[in-house]
Amino acid sequence: MSGSDQDAGRTARPKRADARRNEEVLLDSAAAVFVASGVEAPIRDIAAKAGVGTATIYRHFPTRADLIVAVYRHQVEALAEAGPALLAASPKPYAALAEWIDLFVDFVVTKQGLASVLQSDDPCFDPLHSYFLERLVPVCAELLEAAAESGEIRPGMDPYELMRGVGGLCAGAGNNPRYDARRLVGILVAGLRR
Fold first, then answer.
1. CA distance 157 to 162
2. In b/e form, how buried is each residue of 22-32, taking b as 16+ CB within 10 angstroms?
3. Is residue 166 a contact partner of residue 181, using CB atoms and an 8 Å limit?
4. Taking the model in full, what pTM does it have?
5. Closest by alpha carbon to 26, among 55, 46, 53?
6. Within 13 Å of residue 91, how many CA atoms lie on the same side as its CB?
7. Strand, coil or helix: what is 193?
8. Whole-angstrom Cα distance, residue 81 to residue 77?
9. Which of 6, 23, 92, 137 holds its CA 20 to 30 A away from the CA of 84?
10. Mind listing the pLDDT tens digit for each residue in 75-96?
């Protein structure tokens, strides 16, 4: 085996379970700080929330852009994995769909804190929207199809259109404390029923 073959084998090795857990804690902490304080929050705040030193964050994510991309991807993956799990665990597909949409609302609200950065001119953020669509539209489609096949909702609902509608309702809140995006999304989801 050549040296490059050995290097390729080393980079393909999966992370240990404890390393994955530590990275998840760090990414969840960063997401929470981004929501509360914006993406320009001091790295020391993220480190304190995660219970690690700032050097640990920089070792895993050398730049703020690396951390932002990792947080976004981590949240998309969690949401993508939640769809099939909810479908398997829920007594009815509509309940799984409603719960997943509720998680999607959480994601969209969190993403609002990242919106200005994601829309910046930095090319490292360009692939994130495509990644979001590739991972989440099929999950939403699976949930919609299952609920339609069970007769709980009308067939033919477009997953992309539904996700855009939810996103629009969430974006409408702005800084208005009287605007309850979650309640409005609940009305939208209830409107899917037969």
1. 8
2. bbeebbbbbbb
3. no
4. 0.81
5. 46
6. 0
7. strand
8. 6
9. 23
10. 999 999 999 999 999 999 999 9
